[in-house]
Specification:
Spore Coat Polysaccharide Biosynthesis Protein SpsA, Chain A; alpha/beta; 10-stranded mixed β-sheet; 22 helices; 22 strands; 8-stranded mixed β-sheet
């Protein structure tokens, strides 16, 4: 249908026809919204014909997806009997002046657990309200698994949590806030995860919130372990379950970072834990209650948490590299970590394939030269057979103006992978930058930011935040599986939109990033064999490249602090011929055959989010 709409534009002859009126309407809207016409039609096509077919409301997801996926009581009992490991899980809960109703609901949620091997370790932090002691003593008398210690002096949450830890005997420790709640199957699924990952040190789950009527809302369907996302935001949060030996090793909670004590706790565990020992359980196993003064209600409720978070991160990075700095992020309770460049900044080779289109290429090149604060780079314009005199004139002119610019002829049929591999052979830099000719720099520190990550030894490809000309998002990282192969995170979101749980404003690991603006160390590029110029001449070569880099043991990273325009439709064109459609279909088939299940399960996305759209909406498919 999309192709029919596009071809209709050239066929319309009668100005009073319905098709002509539709055409004029689309052109007018595209112009007013600063969209390329093709782009605008495609956007409307998605909205009208794909719609939210794979997206449902959270309450419907609970009824139609989550509840049918839960085991029966008989299944739970049988599964527990057959577990090879039946760990005791100590639920640690500091308490201070908690509302009587919410405290009872919280404790009741632990008592209701279908997994029986637990103990609830409560430390009352010298609450002055008399109902707290009365209620805790009553619960302790009712269930021997509930143990309570009453502190003589108020020491705040870190000291209170340590008092609760001191009376814990379980192999694992689960953290629970005094006014929140666990679903009755929470510890059961944690026990299953422990059995499936017996070497793991830390587990965390998805979570949601409870309103004052007890209704569930705002689910946080999380990424698997994502270090840079964790440095940017404590996305891990609840339900967090630690091996008790690990907590003993770091002496539990650290006073002085109250408000971000949970993030600090995990940060101090990281030096003792491998990444594969951190396990994400993609189920909602924690309900965060929205009450007055809670960060569940509004992150701004506790402004001191921001300062505590910055301190926790700064102290952690002192052990990694003292030159790393931390500052508040663009959204409350988020952070920006700045990684330093070496004293002798490396040469970056920026490769720009192009053919004619002087205005486009000149905008790209001059924006790099005029706006970039980082200066130790070379620009290799890879000329794929330009014939227009004005383009050739520009090539000659720009090389005279700036000795960092070189023009290399590549007189072969266009093959995006091959032309960039050719460019790498002639590049002098230790870092390679793949840059489309329809890119324009926005943030002057874009190259400094991307390079600071690209030189980290554990990082592979680094991608940027790219916008269309009308300031809607073109690229926020790549999510595997969307549309059958991969799609761009948060595509078409407004520039000011923070995205799913602020992810558009947070540095994070992604499975892939677009080669429209990508930095990678030369040794990594060569190690994985560069771009696939045989099977992926036009599409998906960047996704394939990133997956090869990930397979080689590196993490690909996306940063929102490198902002550029990407006038994608201008240079890309559309698959408007049979030959192009056949080529594209072959590339899709190749990717699906080569990567298989790795395209279906993206560790930095969630199986509970849609694969039909790029907006992080909830899926209606049963993936739980």
């Amino acid at each position: 249908m999309l192709q029919e709409m596009l071809s209709q534009r050239t066929k319309v002859k009668l100005k009073d026809s319905a098709s002509y009126k539709i055409q004029m309407k689309f052109e007018k809207r595209a112009y007013s919204n600063k969209f390329i016409l093709v782009e605008h039609i495609f956007y409307n096509y998605q909205e009208l014909f794909t719609g939210r077919s794979d997206s449902i409301a959270y309450e419907d997801w609970i009824e139609c997806i989550e509840k049918p996926s839960l085991p029966t009581a008989e299944q739970v009992n049988l599964n527990i009997i057959n577990l090879s490991i039946k760990p005791v899980i100590s639920v640690v809960m500091p308490v201070f002046n908690t509302d009587e109703q919410y405290l009872s609901l919280c404790i009741d949620s632990v008592i209701a657990q279908t997994y029986p091997h637990w103990e609830l370790c409560i430390a009352d932090d010298a609450s002055p309200k008399p109902h707290v002691r009365r209620l805790l003593e009553a619960y302790a008398a009712k269930d021997a698994r509930i143990r309570v210690v009453f502190r003589k002096e108020n020491g705040h949450i870190s000291h209170a949590s340590n008092s609760a830890l001191e009376i814990a005997h379980g192999e694992f420790v689960a953290l629970l806030d005094h006014d929140d709640a666990l679903p009755d199957y929470a510890l059961y699924f944690i026990a299953l995860a422990i059995n499936a990952n017996p070497d793991a040190q830390f587990f965390y789950s998805d979570e949601d919130k409870l309103d004052q009527n007890g209704a569930r809302f705002e689910p946080n369907f999380k990424s698997d372990w994502n270090p840079d996302l964790f440095y940017s935001q404590n996305y891990v949060s609840h339900l967090g379950v630690y091996r008790r030996e690990l907590l003993n090793r770091i002496n539990g909670f650290r006073p002085g970072v109250e408000g971000s004590q949970d993030q600090d706790l995990l940060l101090r565990c990281l030096p003792h834990v491998r990444h594969d020992q951190i396990i994400h359980v993609p189920r909602v196993l924690y309900h965060w209650r929205m009450v007055e003064g809670s960060t569940a209600l509004a992150s701004g409720e506790k402004s001191y948490t921001m300062n505590a978070g910055v301190k926790a991160l700064q102290d952690y990075f002192l052990t990694v590299n003292p030159r790393i700095s931390v500052e508040p992020g663009q959204v409350p309770n988020t952070y920006r970590v700045r990684w330093p460049l070496p004293e002798s900044p490396p040469l970056v080779s920026l490769l720009i394939p192009t053919r004619d289109r002087r205005a486009l290429t000149e905008t790209c090149v001059r924006s790099i030269i005029d706006r970039s604060t980082y200066t130790n780079y070379e620009i290799l314009i890879l000329d794929n057979g330009s014939v227009e005199s004005e383009t050739l004139e520009f090539f000659e002119q720009i090389q005279k103006e700036d000795r960092r610019v070189r023009v290399l002829r590549y007189d072969c049929p266009f093959n995006y992978s091959a032309i960039n591999n050719f460019g790498v052979l002639h590049a002098r830099g230790v870092v390679i930058g793949l840059v489309n000719n329809d890119i324009e720099v926005i943030s002057p520190e874009w190259l400094t930011e991307m390079l600071s990550h690209a030189i980290r030894p554990d990082i592979g490809c680094v991608g940027a935040k790219l916008y269309y000309s009308n300031d809607t998002l073109q690229h926020g990282g790549v999510v595997c599986g969307i549309g059958g192969v991969a799609g761009h995170s948060h595509k078409y979101f407004a520039r000011s939109n923070t995205g799913y749980f602020s992810r558009l404003f947070l540095t994070q690991t992604m499975s892939a990033v677009t080669a429209a603006c990508l930095l990678v160390r030369r040794d990594v590029y060569e190690k994985v064999g560069g771009l696939d110029e045989t099977n992926l001449k036009i599409a998906f070569n960047d996704v394939d490249f990133c997956l090869k880099v990930r397979e080689a043991g590196y993490r690909n990273l996306w940063t929102p602090y490198a902002e550029l325009y990407h006038y994608e439709s201008i240079s890309r064109g559309i698959e408007d011929t049979l030959a192009k459609q056949e080529r594209f279909g072959g590339e899709v088939e190749f990717m699906q055959k080569k990567w298989g299940d790795l395209l279906k399960i993206d560790p930095y996305y969630s199986p509970n989010l849609t694969k039909d759209r790029e907006d992080f909406s909830i899926t209606s498919s049963d993936h739980v």
